[in-house]
Design brief:
The chain has 147 residues and is an alpha+beta fold. It has one domain: Hotdog Thioesterase (Thiol Ester Dehydrase, Chain A). Helices cover 20% and strands 37% of the residues. A 6-stranded antiparallel β-sheet has the order 1-2-4-5-6-3, covered by helices on one side. This is Phosphotransferase. It comes from Luteimonas vadosa. InterPro entries: ApeP-like_dehydratase, HotDog_dom_sf.
Length: 147
Amino acid sequence: MIGRAAIEALVPHAGAMCLWDEVLDWDGARIRLRAGTHRAPDHPLRSGGQLRAVHLCEYGAQAMAVHGGLRAQAAGGQARPGMLVALRGVELSVTRIDDLAGALECEAEVLVEAEASQQYGFRILHAGALLAEGRAAVMLGSPQAAG
């Protein structure tokens, strides 16, 4: 298992904006993570005292970033910077998530990969129930920008 400090070292998200607490398992094609950050009263994405389900898309995008960081690290390098450019097929089964007891879990997998882009599918669950699923596309920066 990979903890929060190691995750923060892999992604550009720091402090409260780093949404995942631990990596449960991963390989070259997929990753599974867990977090309890959705319950934090000072969550940076909260508004009006609530954390809305649409923010699960950010959880999915950050799962992609963690996976990219782990893959790059395993290859002896550093992940290239990326920019989320599209969300597709997103389905949400709740309206808010801050009131959910227990951890969120995410399963994300690489669907399409090219030199300058990636597309992942993600699913976010709570207590075995599907909260959100969709696809996210990222454009990758130049390899020189990562170093």
